[in-house]
Amino acid sequence: MTILLRFKDLLDICEKPIPSDLSTTATNKWNKSSFDSISINSCRVSNGVSIEVVKQFSKNAHLLWTKLEEQYASKKAVIRGRVWMQWLKFNYDGNLQHYIDNSRTLMMALETVNITIPKECHSFSLLGKLLGDPKLHLYVEVLTLNEDLVKNPELVLAKLQEFHDNSSPQEKSISPSASALLSESAHPYKITYFYSNRKHNPMCTTHSKNECYAENPHLRPPRRNNKGKNQASAHLSTAQALITRNQLEINSQELIVDCGATHHMFNSPRYFTSFTQTPEINISTGDSASTLISVGMGNIVILCGNQVLTLENSLLVPRLN
């Protein structure tokens, strides 16, 4: 209503009483504008307000406007109180998706009635309601360690949504976006046939009895001698890890490589909870055609199994792929 009254040059009629020193012509013009503003205000209020206010002050635009402001101010205070009590009463009921959706709805309601909560307090409040769930306890602990994440409650809800999506039955048991030292489980396992007393196993279909190395050891090719080459060594093992990241969207598959020596290597600075830039360090891989260069060092916090692990002095290697 304020915008409409200002557009029609009637807001001053509502906010100020009629001056006593106006001429007859000016008084008639003021009264006409007063009735116009009363007509606008009367047809744009609820029935309850119309009964309580409009009928009592329908002849004075200034008094009507003053009473309308008081009426809506009191109702707004009641609405703010109800929204705040709903937020205090809101708890986690065991359904993570339901919790995320209701949290977003209540956050919008708080913003609508101008209730401001410090963002970090809001984030910790959202996470604190989940500590009673044993399935989420460790993941919540990891999220609280990310200082950049807890500065925005929307990012916290986005991480919880990501955790829910990756944990749903429709998703893979191990998500590629949250795995460390991940081995490809899609390939079928190789069946190995064992031999005893140098006899050919008839269940083996890869070679015949005459080609069997167990009965004909002289047919076995000599082993290669690779001692002269400086080969890099590494191993793969299946281990699920939930990485604390600062980014909301994931556009590429994360990659963590265990160098098999003294340090872990990562290809992006977004995985680090603390990071220090260092002079460039050349990393020998055994392949002269590809050179890896470390440009920094820091700590990584991951969730592996039932333990929260801190990978100290991890290296940032941007060319790692």
Helix content: 25-40%
What is the mean pLDDT? 72
- Outline: elongated
Biggest β-sheet description: 7 strands, mixed
Order of helices and strands: HHHHHHHHHEEEEEEE
Q: How large is the share of residues in beta strands?
A: 5-15%
N- and C-termini, Cα separation: 60 Å
Annotation field: number of helices: 9
Number of strands: 7
Question: From the alpha-carbon coordinates, what is the Rg to the nearest angstrom?
Answer: 36 Å
State the oligomer: single chain
Instruction: Determine the structural class based on helices, strands and strand pairing.
Output: alpha+beta
pLDDT < 50 runs, ≥5 residues: 170-187, 230-258
How many domains, as an integer? 3
What report would you give on this structure?
Strands 1, 2, 3, 4, 5, 6 and 7 form a seven-stranded mixed β-sheet that branches. Strand 5 and strand 6 (292-304) form a beta hairpin. The two termini are 60 Å apart. This protein has nine helices and seven strands. The protein folds into three domains: 2-82, no CATH class; 93-167, no CATH class; 239-245 and 253-316, no CATH class. The chain has helices at 2-7, 11-15, 24-42, 47-54, 61-89, 96-112, 119-128, 137-144, 153-167, and strands spanning 179-180, 239-243, 256-258, 264-266, 274-283, 292-304, 307-316. Mean pLDDT is 72; it is low at 170-187 and 230-258. The protein is an alpha+beta fold and 321 residues long. The protein is elongated, with a radius of gyration of 36 Å. It comes from Austropuccinia psidii MF-1.
